[in-house]
Amino acid sequence: MKTKPAAPRRSDATKAAILEAARERFAADGYERATIRAIARDANIDPSMVMRYYGNKEGLLAAAFEIDLHVPDLGALPGKHIGAVVVAHFLDRWEGDDVLTALLRVGVTHEAGAERMKEVFAEQLGRIAVGVCPDPADARRRAALVASQILGMALARYVLRIEPAVAMSREEVVAWLAPTIQRYLTAEGP
């Protein structure tokens, strides 16, 4: 006899609605102007529920932007392809995930958003750098350099929408950025 999968708990659905509304509101209004009341209204719930689940606006921000970049395992790749794989991966992420764009918008306008962005990129890019750079002791610096390129292109292409960055094909972006990312991750120090 087949059993039906358990229906999601009502609290899970409420939390999901709150997080979705928070991401949209933070992206549209920025952290400062987004309010718990507006987020609750967007999620069609009472503001007290937002406070119950997340405590305050900073707690909500952290939960709304809990992001796994799904960074690929680069250990099995030939070293000369690392830059291209990283750039292509991040283009896929930015183009397929509005949450990253929302976090970037919040990160450039509010310290809590900037801290969240730094945590996500330092931790997850740090793992890449440790695995492929010639001196693991230098991994944090290299991860920061990679983040500068990835976030710079994302800001220009997806947030500020600067031409010709927007009009460039995926292949052009990879061709321009990959050598720099490759150098940051795999070259001997300057």
Please state the structural category. mainly alpha
Count the helices. How many? 9
Largest beta-sheet details: none
CATH C-level category of the largest domain: Mainly Alpha
Shape: elongated
Oligomerization category of the chains in this entry: single chain
Helix-strand topology string: HHHHHHHHH
- How many domains? 2
Strand content: under 5%
User: How many strands in all?
Assistant: 0
* Low-confidence sequence ranges: none
Secondary structure: helix percent: over 70%
In the CATH hierarchy, the architecture of the largest domain is Orthogonal Bundle
Average pLDDT works out at 87
CATH topology of the largest domain: Tetracycline Repressor, domain 2
* Alpha-carbon distance between the two ends: 66 Å
Q: What does this protein look like?
A:
The structure is a single chain. With 190 residues, this protein is mainly α. It has two domains: 10-64, Arc Repressor Mutant, subunit A; 79-186, Tetracycline Repressor, domain 2 (Orthogonal Bundle). Helices cover 70% and strands 0% of the residues. It has nine helices and no strands. Helix 3 packs across helix 4 and helix 6 (98-107) packs across helix 7 (111-132). The protein is elongated and about 55 Å long. The termini are far apart.
